[in-house]
TrEMBL record:
Phylogenetic placement of the source organism: Eukaryota, Metazoa, Spiralia, Gnathifera, Rotifera
The protein, known as: Uncharacterized protein
Database matches in InterPro entries: DHC, P-loop_NTPase
Domain of life: Eukaryota
UniProt xrefs under Gene3D superfamilies: P-loop containing nucleotide triphosphate hydrolases (3.40.50.300)
GO terms under cellular component: dynein complex
BP GO terms, sorted: microtubule-based movement
MF GO annotations: dynein intermediate chain binding; dynein light intermediate chain binding
Amino acid sequence: EYPINPKAVSLGELYGQFNLATNEWNDGILSMIMRQVCAG
């Protein structure tokens, strides 16, 4: 269980964001949690 307060972080920190300067995706909190849960 992962309690998260969405008002405490920005949208980019919560969902993830694309960095135009480096053309890389940076995972947010939810993206990292989903990767961990799906990996087992």
